Structures are given as C-alpha cells and as structure tokens.
Amino acid sequence: MEIQRVPVSVYAEMTPNPGVMKFVANKRLIDVDHVEFANIEEAQISPLAAALFNFPFVKNVFISTNFIAVEKFNVVEWDAVTQELRQFILAHIQEGKAVLTAVPQPKKSDEVTDAAVAPAYAEDGIEARIIDILEEYVKPAVAQDGGNIVFAGYENKIVKVQLQGACAGCPSSTLTLQQGIKNILQRMLPTLVDDVVPA
Fold it and tell me: Which of 8, 22, 60, 177 has the fewest CB atoms within 10 Å, i.e. is most exposed?
C-alpha cells in the first residue's frame, strides 16, 4: 500500500483586529505553543518570521501550532497584500524550510509570570482552576481569532491576563476581557472573580 502525502495548504482568514490577518496551515508548524516577534532582530530563531519582516508593511508576527498571524502597518490594505503573503508562506512550508530553528528564551516578563504562577499552585487551587478554565474554554476561542491568552496573576479577586497575537492590539480586546473572559470565570468560579484586567 502506497502512502500518499497530503499537499500543504494555507488559507487566509480575517480576525476581529483589522490590522491582523491569520494564515492557517493544514499541518503543524512549530512544536511549542506559540512564538511572537516584534521585529526582524527578535525573529532570528524563525526563518519564516524573519523573511516576513522583509515585507515593509509587516509590523508583528505571531506563530502558533498551525497558524501565523501577521500584523501590518496601516500603509497598505489587506486586499493588496493577502494573496502575496499567503503564497509566500505556502511556498516556505512546501519547500520544507524551517519555521523555527530554536526554542525561544523566555522574556523577562515571561520569567516573572512563570515564577508568580508556580508558588500560586502550592498556596491554593484558585489559580490552577483559573488557568484550567482559560486553557479549556478561552484559549481555543482566542486562537480562532489569531491570538493567545496567558494567565499573569490573581490577587484580591482580580485576574490578570496577557493577550497576545491578533488579540493584543485588537479594538475589541477590552470587550473580550470584560464580557467574554470575565463572564466565563464568574460563571464557573462564582464569588472568586470580581474582574479581569490586562497585565
């Protein structure tokens, strides 16, 4: 029996953030949860992201397991560049070029977050429950919009989260925090969550 390879495909998808377009592949792109690059210097561990920064309109690149969210400067309209970017990303993947060549080192803010989360697990289970809810109910929805959410802390019934990718600069991110994430957490953890704020 002959094994046939599934051809690689990439399609473009709008996100709620008008400055970000999501390019979804039908294969796994990276083995880590996500990486984000704000400039070509940061992108040295990602040949694909570094190459995308050669387009003068690319402002930010967020890569998750099966999609790439590209944020642009307001110098062009998506209609003029989406197809070119889609073809560029598709060709990169089809040619077997690396998407990520090294595991990114945590930024100072990530180290603080990780350090803050670790003792919280030991102290009580509220933070662990919040993280589980974010992972199961919120993260998939945020990923559909081309972004990611990271738990950043819990104190005095206030949950701090960090929105990344397309969600970071989205005009509706405040609405997402207040009506989406806050409602879910208050419904699932009544009396334990008063508010959700950006970190």
Answer: 8
| Domain architecture of the chain: domains with CATH | 10-94 (3.30.1370.70), 108-198 (3.30.300.130)
**Euclidean distance between CA atoms 121 and 163, whole angstroms:** 22
Phi, psi of 77 (to 5 degrees): -95, 150
Tens digits of residue pLDDT in 92-139: 999 999 999 988 776 554 444 443 344 333 346 889 999 999 988 888
CA triplet 110, 40, 81: central angle to 5 degrees? 110
Euclidean distance between CA atoms 197 and 177, whole angstroms: 7
Closest CA to 154 of 184, 176, 123, 188: 123
Beta-bridge partner residues of 61: 37, 70
Predicted model pTM: 0.74
What are the DSSP E strand ranges found in 38-179?
Answer: 58-64, 67-72, 147-155, 158-165
